[in-house]
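Lecture notes, unit on protein representations.

Consider one protein chain, 221 amino acids long.
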Amino acid sequence: MKKKLDNIVEVLWFIWAMVLSAVYFFLCMLIGVGCYLWEGMISCFKSKIRMGVVFFAAACIFVTFAVGPYYKLIYMIGDSMDPTVEHGRILIVKRALKEYSPRRYDVVAIEDVAAGDLLVKRVLALPGEWYEIREGVVYLNGNKRMDLYGHGKISFDLVDALTNEYLRYWNGPDKGKVVIELVDQKPEQVPPGHVWVIGDNRKDSWFGLLPTSHIRGTIDR
């Protein structure tokens, strides 16, 4: 019941923000039209300044009402969630409420305190479940996980320890390509209060366990 009430309040709040922004935008348009029709050049210039101030105030109100209490804007950096979420996109994160319980395949903004980063990842393993990685492929509870979101295999590029350059094949069909190694990880159980997350771009994504309390919100697709 409380969750349903929160959803209603959220919708009403968003509608109110949109209406308020629309009213301010309409007022700005009226000021601009009046400026050109009834005032001279100098007065028009002053009115434009006033219009800009009003429009800026409207934008601030919109951000405060529509984004502040229930949403947060973040900027996506990197290709770990490609193609679901491309690099450079501005995302609207729906803030996680206290009673939020993560579900498999949720796309979440989760904080990695150790690295000081806010990560955008997909939840794959839930508390109590077993996960492992065999030759770059994720297995849950002993079964190969066939999901519709992830692509590629979990791997890393090999680097020469002396030159710090990528190792490349010298001959064969892969000549010139970077040498990669598929990841293998023994079965482990997700502890209570944690989730196992990874990006949809398996080859280019951080993966691992993070506390559910660090989930800052979800991203609807």
